Amino acid sequence: MLGESHDLIHEFPDLEGKIAALRAEDPKFAKLMDDYNGLDARVRTIEELGTPVADETIEDLKKERLHLKDTLYAMLRA
After folding, report:
1. Count of structural domains, the chain
2. Phi-psi category of 59—alpha, beta or left, where left has phi over 0 and alpha has psi -120 to 50?
3. Is residue 58 situated within a structural domain?
4. Would residue 47 count as lying in a domain?
5. Is residue 64 a contact partner of residue 39, using CB atoms and an 8 Å limit?
6. How many CB atoms lie within 10 A of CB 52?
7. Predicted model pTM
8. Torsion of CA 72, 76, 27, 3, to 10 degrees
């Protein structure tokens, strides 16, 4: 769905406590999460406002967001 939030709490509600703990304790996790949130906001803004961008650009942003989410999830499951 266009403009849908993909924040980590929304994506992994069962890991909310671990997300908060890692964000507070692990600077690398916190940085990656900030990067992820920023990228998610950028994608949502483009989708919601109908900002003209090449299809490849939005797809690249979504792939980068997915890669960050996979990295963060691996850190959460470690």
Report:
1. 1
2. alpha
3. yes
4. yes
5. yes
6. 7
7. 0.86
8. 40
Rounded-to-integer distance, Cα 73 and Cα 54, Å: 29
pLDDT in tens, 13-53: 999 999 999 999 999 999 999 999 999 999 988 888 887 88
The mean pLDDT value for 62-67 works out to: 96
Q: Which of 53, 35, 55 is nearest to 45 (CA)?
A: 53
Q: The domain containing residue 57 runs over which residues?
A: 27-77
At 19, list the tokens. 């997300």
Cβ count within 10 A of residue 65: 19
Q: Are 68 and 39 in contact (CB under 8 A)?
A: yes
